[in-house]
Amino acid sequence: MTETNRPAIDGLEIDAPHRDLLDQVLDKWPLQVLDRLCEQPSRFNELRRAIPAVTQKSLTATLRRLERNCVVDRVITSSRPIAVEYRITSLGKTLRGPIDELLQWTAMHMPDVERARAKFDDEA
Amino acid sequence: MTETNRPAIDGLEIDAPHRDLLDQVLDKWPLQVLDRLCEQPSRFNELRRAIPAVTQKSLTATLRRLERNCVVDRVITSSRPIAVEYRITSLGKTLRGPIDELLQWTAMHMPDVERARAKFDDEA
DNA sequence: CGGGATCCCAAGCGATACTG
DNA sequence: CAGTATCGCTTGGGATCCCG
């Protein structure tokens, strides 16, 4: 520890970049934003209303990250008063399949999981 | 099928339980643990060695959560000295498909994303 | 061997206020 | 309208020590 305070990161996890990308795309807010934008382009405040639990700070951060990863497009549609529209990109659309399969998995197996949880919690 | 409409339940998100389940299964450590256990049953310390970056605490917590959700099975194979083996369950195996598709997505589009990121960071 | 119990810090998030 | 800035708290995680 006479070293830096940087945590010792070693080489081979599932692959850091991949993990990182999944985090930025599948997290709580990103997932919901993508879900919404897949259905329709939306303005900032429309997204806030569509996802009531998100704060402006988190939404902004989420959108920036998604834009950075090129799954969402930020389009200024008017300058005064400023209007911004967020749209899913073609790359973003390719996420639909994987995400939907994931959601279908949870939908299909949620009962099993909840039963398992109840049992686990009960035994403990 | 494309009845895109989310029920737009009052104040509810993409569905908290689903989100929650995804979190517990797709997070950094769970993903790597599942990945490993899909290939072979493993003991606790084998997992630590297979995933060098994980701490004992995180690994324990991860395994407990996976066990609680019934995607991983905890099997005591010896009592003295105690030996525990973790195995993927049948439910856990059904996660392979969705997860693999996700990883294939990242693998396929990582170049695009990295280019986009570089461009984004450069412009900023 | 497979953990449980602590301490502790930094990152993240919510809440709030302000701006072009 | 669509953000930026700041602050304070919560908490997840690493590090460490110990036990059956």
UniProtKB/TrEMBL annotation, chains A, B:
Keywords: DNA-binding, Transcription, Transcription regulation. The keyword DNA-binding applies. This is Helix-turn-helix domain-containing protein. It comes from the Bacteria. It comes from Saxibacter everestensis. Residues 16-114 form the HTH hxlR-type domain. The lineage of its organism: Bacteria, Bacillati, Actinomycetota, Actinomycetes, Micrococcales.
